[in-house]
C-alpha cells in the first residue's frame, strides 16, 4: 500500500520562489526588474494585512500598500548594484513581519485573557527523542533485512545455472525466518517512534478542521489516519505494505508538517474561543 502524500509549498518559504531564479538588478530589463519588485511588495503587503486581520484592527489598505512600496523602494535604492543583498533583505523583512506579527497577536490575547490557564499543554510539544538502544535495534534490523534480501536475490540468480544446488530448503527457511524477524523488529520500531507524533498530528488536524474546513487539511487527516492504520498492531493491511516505503512516507509527512505547525501557531494565537 503506497499512500500518496500531498505536495505543498510553504507561502513563507521564500527560498523556493521561482521568481528569484536568474534575477539580476543590473542586467535584467526594466520590465523584469519591475515584476520582481512588485512581487516583493505583494509579499510585504500580504504579511502586514494578515497581521492586521488577525488582530481585528482597522486599517487602510491604500496606506498599507504605500508603506510597503516605500520600504521596498528604500531597500532597492540601497542595493541597486547588489542583487543578492536586495533579495536577502527583502526575504528577511517579510519573515520578520510574520514573526513579529505572530508574537504581537499572542501578546494581545494574553493581555485580553489574563485568567487563561498557563499550564495547558500545547499541541506543538517536541517529539520525544528515541533512546540509543532503540535506534541501534532499528538499524540492526534494517541491516539484517538488507542482507537477507541480497542473499535471496543471489540464490535466484544461481538457480539459473546448471551447477546450482537444488536442495537449499534449510538455508531458505533460516533466511526467511531471519528476514521475517527483522521485518517485525522494524515495524515495531516504527510503531514506537512514530505512533505518538502521528496521533498528535491527527489531533491537530481535527481541531483545525473543526474551526475551518480546508481541503488540504482534510486530505492530510486522511493520510495520517491511513498511516496509523498501517502501523496498528493486527492491521489487515500489513501484509500488503512495503515497510521501507511506509517508513519513507511517514518521515516525509512529518517533515512537511512544518507548514501546518506555522498555521497552527497562528490559529492558536488568535483570541477566538
What is the number of beta strands?
A: 0
End-to-end CA span: 39 Å
Please summarize the sheet with the most strands. none
User: What oligomeric assembly is this protein in?
Assistant: single chain
Protein structure class: mainly alpha
Shape: elongated
Radius of gyration: 27 Å
Q: Give the SSE string.
A: HHHHHHH
Helix segment tally: 7
In the residues, how many domains can be counted? 2
Approximate helicity band:
55-70%
Strand content: under 5%
Unreliable residue runs: 1-22, 115-128
Summarize model confidence as the mean pLDDT.
70
Protein name: Mediator complex subunit 15 KIX domain-containing protein
What does this molecule look like?
It comes from Thraustotheca clavata. This is Mediator complex subunit 15 KIX domain-containing protein. The chain is mainly alpha-helical and 273 residues long. The protein folds into 2 domains: 99 residues; 137 residues, no CATH class. The N terminus is likely disordered.
Question: What is the strand and helix layout of this fold?
Answer:
Layout: H1 30-54, H2 61-78, H3 83-112, H4 132-158, H5 169-211, H6 215-231, H7 243-268
Helix pairs in contact: 1-2, 1-3, 4-5, 5-6, 5-7
Amino acid at each position: 500500500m503506497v499512500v500518496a502524500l500531498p505536495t505543498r509549498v510553504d507561502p513563507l518559504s521564500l527560498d523556493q520562489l521561482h521568481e528569484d531564479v536568474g534575477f539580476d538588478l543590473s542586467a535584467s530589463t526594466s520590465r523584469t526588474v519591475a515584476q520582481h519588485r512588485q512581487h516583493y511588495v505583494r509579499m510585504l503587503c500580504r504579511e502586514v494585512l494578515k497581521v492586521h486581520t488577525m488582530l481585528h484592527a482597522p486599517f487602510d489598505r491604500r496606506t498599507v500598500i504605500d508603506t510597503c512600496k516605500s520600504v521596498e523602494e528604500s531597500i532597492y535604492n540601497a542595493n541597486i548594484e547588489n542583487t543578492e543583498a536586495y533579495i536577502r533583505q527583502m526575504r528577511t523583512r517579510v519573515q520578520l513581519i510574520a514573526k513579529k506579527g505572530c508574537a504581537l497577536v499572542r501578546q494581545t490575547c494574553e493581555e485580553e485573557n489574563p485568567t487563561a490557564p498557563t499550564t495547558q499543554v500545547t499541541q506543538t510539544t517536541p517529539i520525544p527523542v528515541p533512546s540509543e538502544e532503540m535506534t541501534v535495534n532499528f538499524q540492526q534490523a534494517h541491516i539484517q533485512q538488507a542482507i537477507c534480501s541480497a542473499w535471496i536475490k543471489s540464490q535466484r540468480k544461481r538457480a539459473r545455472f546448471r551447477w546450482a544446488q537444488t536442495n537449499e530448503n534449510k538455508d531458505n527457511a533460516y533466511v526467511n525466518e531471519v528476514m521475517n524477524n527483522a521485518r517485525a523488529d522494524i515495524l515495531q520500531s516504527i510503531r514506537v517512534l512514530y505512533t505518538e507524533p502521528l496521533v498528535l498530528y491527527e489531533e491537530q488536524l481535527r481541531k483545525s478542521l473543526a474551526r475551518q474546513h480546508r481541503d488540504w487539511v482534510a486530505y492530510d487527516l486522511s493520510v495520517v489516519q491511513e498511516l496509523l492504520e498501517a502501523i496498528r498492531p493486527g492491521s489487515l493491511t500489513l501484509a500488503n505494505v512495503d515497510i521501507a516505503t511506509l517508513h519513507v512516507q511517514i518521515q516525509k509527512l512529518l517533515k512537511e508538517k512544518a507548514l501546518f505547525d506555522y498555521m497552527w501557531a497562528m490559529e492558536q494565537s488568535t483570541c477566538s474561543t
